[in-house]
Amino acid sequence: MATTITDSQKPFSLDPYHVSEVSGFILPAPLMLPRNLAIPYWKVSQRLGLPPILTHADAVLANWKKRDPHGPFDMENLELLVTLPGGDSVKGFFMVTLLVELAAVPAIKSIPLVINGVQCGDAETVTSALEEISQAMEGMTDALKLMHAYVKPEVFYGIIRIYLSGWKDNSSMPAGLVYEGIQAEPMEYSGASAAQSSLLHCFDELLGVKHEEKCGAFLTRMRNYMPSSHKHLIQDISLQPSLRGFVQQEASELLTAAFQLCVTKLMALRSYHINVVSRFITVPAARARQLRSQGNNSQEETVSRAPTALEETGTGGSGIMSFLKTVRDRTRDVSLPLDNRAMPKSTNGAQPQNTQYTTHQTHLQSNTF
Description:
By secondary structure, this protein is mostly helical. It has 13 helices and eight strands. 50% of the residues lie in helices and 5% in strands. It has a two-stranded parallel sheet with strand order 1-7. Helix 7 crosses helix 12 (253-293).
């Protein structure tokens, strides 16, 4: 049975806002987390190597179990360990995000093959591994599409985002939050964000994507919200010889096409993410502004529950749309021209196929983190 935090059990200071399920109104953000919560929360977080705030690792990577231990990784057989207000949309949001992570497993397994192939000058191995990575990226996009079926935009915008937002770059908590018994000065931490997933960081380092200074600084800071093993993996990939340089040096049509396909699929994933953000944040935000302009302060519409401070930012504190578009455009910069625009055959002689999303039995376990 998943644990639900009810209205009477919610510790106000764990989130920057508190939505009363009775009144429907948002109470002021607290300034201090009481010592009986702050001290154990801090110590557990230190032991885990994570900051004392809800992170992607908490909410997604380690927040699931199978109903049937021998059953598949799918929406019907997965449930949350800890949930939040928002009903079925909360489960949908966290579980679909988990399925995106699972779809990426073949790509993560193929990255060492790419690195070893580059070091050994084995273009065939690199080509084959890049084809596997591009297929996994497509699977990630297909998994992300499930968000539309399992999450209601108004619930995500008006309720769920409140519990994912943090106390950094948040105008409602400009000084941050005091952790009583830890230190007298308030501390600032970003809320849970997709940027805290190690997946795209790994792909960027592998393909050589370089982000603009502001976006790059934000992404680098988000690595401090990852499990240490994930952060170290990204760093290790960044220290390897340039894959893009190897592809250019080899001047192989098959290799170049495999590299370019990875870039194309990564751009497609980021473009679809922009589509999702538009539906789940931009459109509801516009509706909330419309209601305010009409003088409608009713809490009957769920979008009205979200504080105005969250309208233009992601849960991690970034300016969401401009950030995502800039990151996508920088991905395009690593593209390599192809001499032959026709889709090449793969190294095993077969034409690469578009793969529909499927779940994979993997080594990802809730106690991994």
